[in-house]
């Protein structure tokens, strides 16, 4: 493989909704380093997750497949170890040093990462890596002893008892509890993940391209932040959520915490960019920032994810690097998270397998095309247990209680289909971006056309 093949740095937040970026509307969000990527790259304004839940979304990304082609319907299933991943193809067929840190969530149901975070990473295609617990995973799996590298770190540092007590309390009110984390800065989960990412960058070879995946745990609930993070947002006020009359000082505090976690991730992104620039590698590195799914954040009276509405299924996506021909461009192309798998393969000069549904976005980056997909599909199938858990923490709204649903989104309209709805819901996204008006009865032809897309889907 030619050494000039670009490196790929993929930074993935957990639960970062699409519109919480600096310069978006009237939100006082600070993301200067994502802005650096935007100024030098392409911002995909219409990016969507194939499923707004951690494990299925990340399985779709790893395999380059849509939700209904991926054997991970929810958080209670692991990705089979024999699954074909784009990580393995980069490593085995393109000679990439493939490394990753943070919350991969590819075996979320098992709750065991090995104490060094190495469990199954090699089988999935990693050359090196540290796969660790997500925020609440550390609570569910580490009460008696550690089963992953993050809890091992906390036990080793004498911090496990304080952390477990803190998260046991937060589990009862993952949004309402906005108290400070008892952990020092260096042991706060996202800061620890960033340090591990830099350690893996230390190991990258000089004679081969590399792909580093950094899976941050924030801004996923709970709303835990350090004192430094809190102080930076102490006096900031946010606009209220859409479609809800519930907004007070407590809601504003939740938004401050959410913004603080995003800014903290942005700070670490800046440290990666600065380092690569100092070491002369930024010019040969494609940098991607995205999230596995979004966050309702009180819109329509709903919190969390798993919802068919845009704050839950739409994600930020910015791609920067030497392949970009129109730096600073904002693309309206419809893109799905799994498309990053095909994009990485094309960057590495590999073919995308025919059984992958992912489509490379390099054509948009190069300015060859302004469009990408005719539509994007997102979906989720859940058990009664998952629905009750969601209703307990996120709200008892009808959207929270759907057992299974699919959305089909075009450039203008969006259809929501579920056996728990008495009829499909159709939204005009241009006229009604907050999805408050159902137009299905007024536009039967649009409903018929978009329903055809879901034919054969498990809904």
Question: What can you see in these coordinates?
Answer:
The longest helix has 30 residues, at 249-278. It is built from 15 helices and 12 strands. α3 runs parallel beside α12 (339-347) and α8 (189-202) runs parallel beside α10. β10 (404-409) and β11 form a beta hairpin. By secondary structure, the chain is of the alpha/beta class. The chain has helices at 32-40, 54-63, 86-94, 121-124, 137-141, 149-156, 160-170, 189-202, 227-231, 249-278, 310-313, 339-347, 362-365, 384-394, 444-453, and strands at residues 7-14, 41-48, 97-102, 128-131, 210-219, 285-291, 317-320, 329-336, 376-381, 404-409, 413-417, 425-428.
Features:
single chain, 459 residues, Alkaline Phosphatase, subunit A, Arylsulfatase, C-terminal domain, eight-stranded mixed sheet
* Element-by-element helix/strand order: EHEHHEHEHHHHEHHEHEEHHEHEEEH
Content-based structural category: alpha/beta
- In the CATH scheme, the class of the largest domain would be Alpha Beta
Helix content: 25-40%
Major pleated sheet: 8 strands, mixed
Name the poorly predicted regions: none
Helix count, per DSSP? Answer: 15
CATH superfamily of the largest domain: Alkaline Phosphatase, subunit A
Distance between the termini: 44 Å
For this structure, the CATH topology of the largest domain is: Alkaline Phosphatase, subunit A
Beta-strand portion reads: 15-25%
- Shape verdict: globular
Mean residue pLDDT = 95
The number of distinct structural domains comes to: 2
Radius of gyration: 21 Å
The total strand number stands at: 12
**Strands side by side in the biggest sheet:** 4-3-5-1-6-7-2-8
CATH architecture heading of the largest domain: 3-Layer(aba) Sandwich
């Amino acid at each position: 493989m030619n050494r000039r093949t670009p490196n790929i740095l993929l930074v993935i937040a957990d639960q970062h909704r699409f519109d919480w970026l600096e310069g978006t509307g009237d939100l006082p969000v600070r993301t200067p380093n994502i802005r650096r990527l935007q100024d030098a790259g392409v911002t995909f304004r219409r990016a969507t997750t194939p499923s707004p839940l951690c494990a299925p979304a990340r399985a779709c990304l790893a395999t380059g497949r849509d939700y209904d082609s991926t054997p991970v319907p929810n958080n209670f299933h692991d990705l089979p170890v024999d699954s074909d991943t784009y990580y393995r193809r980069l490593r085995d067929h393109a000679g990439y040093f493939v490394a990753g840190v943070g919350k991969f969530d590819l075996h979320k149901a098992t709750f065991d990462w090995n104490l060094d975070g190495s469990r199954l990473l090699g089988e999935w295609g990693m050359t090196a890596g540290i796969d660790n617990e997500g925020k609440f995973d550390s609570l569910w799996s580490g009460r008696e002893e550690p089963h992953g590298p993050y809890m091992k770190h906390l036990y080793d540092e004498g911090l496990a008892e304080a952390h477990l007590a803190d998260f046991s309390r937060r589990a009862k009110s993952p949004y309402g509890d906005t108290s400070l984390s008892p952990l020092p800065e260096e042991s706060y989960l996202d800061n620890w993940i960033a340090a591990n990412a830099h350690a893996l960058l230390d190991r990258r070879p000089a004679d081969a391209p590399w792909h580093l995946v950094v899976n941050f745990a924030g801004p996923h609930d709970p709303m835990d932040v350090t004192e430094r993070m809190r102080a930076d947002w102490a006096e900031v006020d946010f606009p209220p959520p859409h479609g809800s009359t519930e907004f007070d000082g407590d809601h504003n505090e939740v938004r401050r915490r959410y913004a603080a976690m995003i800014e903290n991730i942005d700070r670490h992104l800046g440290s990666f960019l600065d380092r690569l620039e100092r070491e002369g590698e930024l010019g040969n590195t494609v940098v991607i920032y995205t999230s596995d799914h979004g966050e309702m954040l009180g819109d329509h009276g709903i919190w969390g994810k798993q919802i068919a509405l845009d704050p839950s299924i739409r994600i930020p996506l910015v791609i920067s690097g030497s392949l970009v021909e129109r730096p600073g461009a904002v693309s309206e192309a419809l893109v799905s998270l799994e498309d990053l798998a095909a994009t990485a393969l094309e960057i590495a000069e590999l073919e995308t397998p025919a059984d992958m549904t992912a489509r490379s976005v390099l054509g948009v980056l190069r300015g060859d095309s302004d469009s990408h997909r005719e539509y994007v599909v997102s979906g989720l199938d859940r058990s009664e247990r998952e629905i009750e858990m969601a209703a307990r923490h996120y709200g008892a709204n009808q959207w929270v209680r759907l057992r299974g649903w699919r959305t089909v989104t075009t450039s203008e309209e969006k259809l929501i289909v579920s056996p728990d709805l008495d009829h499909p819901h159709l939204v005009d996204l241009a006229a009604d971006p907050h999805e408050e008006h159902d137009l299905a009865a007024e536009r039967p032809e649009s409903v018929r056309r978009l329903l055809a897309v879901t034919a054969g889907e498990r809904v």
